[in-house]
Design a protein that fits this description.
mainly alpha, elongated, MetI-like fold
């Protein structure tokens, strides 16, 4: 069979097609080429193939189906909001509390709603100010740990030449108890909330990075990623567009576990005397109550109840949100 021969005509407006001819005549406008090169843009290609489906809208629909998780989220939000309202309705300013010997260990009453501590200071204002401090510290530290862990985990899992370096770094840090690092930092640099918060971020990314690295190993050589590399797609774009969406549920779950874990860890550091006690926090209140809770249990009950509420509500809500983020549940 003879091959067809393409003939371009740019001077005439009409070209006849002879019968039995294997020549293909292509008509073009005068002075213009018959064809243009089609450029490839990943952003335009994604917009062309997009649909009305919204991932985050689907996540929200799946999350609100779990009424218990929504209730937990509402309770946590109201608790955090009340930490700003409580000082307004309080009879005493937490920053101007005076030591009154006659009011030592006053039990909860109409004047002192949570009673007083061993120095006669109002306990209500201290508890809610400490709650706000602990929540802000926990969210900030947990977010820092997750961001650092995800970024390192993505690079660790995708760039094979760096695998040995990060593996040895992980083993070096992980084989020494974290409390030893925190003790050295507290003694050499200081016990301020900022220093200890940054230290918790510096040594708290290990678990997240290891988990993300193992998951990236599973996805990096799948067909769509190989096709993206063949098309010249940048590494950063492959990581953020092809791999990270599969990790959203894992990241959310790690964050949900990190926030109550950070509060518990801050309580432990305070109990061991490694945190600055000048800024009230739930850990400091629990540390101070350890010597008096047998005779005055309210000193321990109120901060412990708030710590338990934060831990339970955020864990349940975060776990449900993690399930809602799993693409396999968007059927």
């Amino acid at each position: 069979m003879q091959e067809a021969r393409v003939i371009y005509n740019v001077d005439k407006h009409a070209v006849p097609f002879p019968e039995g001819s294997n020549e293909l005549y292509i008509q073009a406008l005068p002075g213009k080429p018959a064809f243009d090169f089609a450029e490839y843009h990943p952003e335009e290609a994604e917009r062309t193939g997009s649909s009305e489906y919204s991932y985050w809208r689907s996540v929200w629909r799946n999350f609100v189906k779990k009424k218990s998780a929504v209730a937990m989220l509402v309770i946590f939000s109201l608790l955090f909001l009340f930490t700003f309202i409580a000082p307004i309705i309080s009879k005493y300013d937490v920053h101007n509390l005076r030591i009154v010997d006659d009011l030592m260990f006053t039990r909860p009453n109409s004047t002192f709603w949570f009673g007083t501590d061993n120095l006669g200071r109002d306990y209500w204002s201290q508890v809610w100010y400490a709650t706000r401090t602990s929540i802000i510290l926990a969210v900030s530290v947990s977010a820092g740990q997750i961001i650092m862990g995800v970024l390192i985990g993505l690079v660790w899992g995708y760039v094979r030449s760096l695998d040995r370096f990060f593996t040895e770094l992980y083993n070096f840090i992980n084989n020494i108890p974290t409390i030893i690092y925190m003790t050295l930092i507290a003694l050499m640099i200081g016990k301020s909330t900022l220093v200890m918060g940054l230290s918790m971020i510096l040594f708290g990314w290990l678990g997240t990075a290891r988990n993300i690295r193992n998951l990236v190993f599973m996805y990096r050589d799948r067909e769509y990623n190989l096709a993206s590399r063949c098309l010249g797609t940048s590494t950063w774009r492959i990581l953020t567009r092809n791999i990270v969406p599969y990790l959203v549920s894992v990241i959310v779950l790690r964050l949900a576990l990190a926030i109550p874990g950070t509060i518990a860890y801050e309580t432990t550091l305070t109990y061991l005397g490694l945190m600055d006690i000048s800024t009230p926090s739930l850990g400091i209140l629990l540390r101070n109550a350890r010597s008096f809770f047998l005779d005055y249990p309210y000193l321990l009950v109120f901060p412990a109840a708030i710590v338990s509420t934060i831990t339970i509500t955020f864990y349940l809500a975060g776990n449900a949100f993690s399930d809602a983020c799993d693409p396999r549940n968007h059927l």
